[in-house]
Specification:
The chain has helices at about 30-45, 80-95, 115-130, 145-155; strands spanning about 10-15, 45-55, 60-65, 70, 75, 105-110, 140-145. By secondary structure, it is of the alpha+beta class. The strands form two sheets. A five-stranded antiparallel beta sheet has the order 6-1-3-2-7, with helices on both faces. A two-stranded antiparallel sheet has the order 4-5. It is globular. The model is unreliable at about 1-5 (pLDDT under 50).
Amino acid sequence: MTQRAIDGDFVYFVTTNTTHRRHFFVAAEQVTLLGRIIKNACRLKHFDLLGYAVLPNHVHILVKNNNISISGSRIHRFTVSDVLHSIKRNYSRQLQSGRLWKPRFNFRIVADERRFGNTVSYMQFNWQKHGYDARYGESPFLHIDWLVIHNTLNI
């Protein structure tokens, strides 16, 4: 869902798909570029990036909202929608590709430590569920930042 009303100091598990579930993310170079764009969007929108998993036709992103940006006397709060919009727009522009992404995305709030552990495990092994080869369980297709996880969630 693309609800801008969802805002708060939460950890979000976000999934977004390619149009027609087309297998687009197969080359490591494409995924490396996507990873840089994800990291940059999170930095600019003040979200902590805990990790991402890129599969041929969808992407999972785990982020924590840390987004109060004060410029002068004005406070701007970014949402998950802002982050996803930035990622999709910038990646499509870099590749000069048409309609690569489905316009909507799904997310859930990761509310407790057990669910968080399950979510990270799901990201790490999602490639097996879909029957993809093992490279989807390694960099650049999988990025889990254990230091950020530890610092952000105090676990």
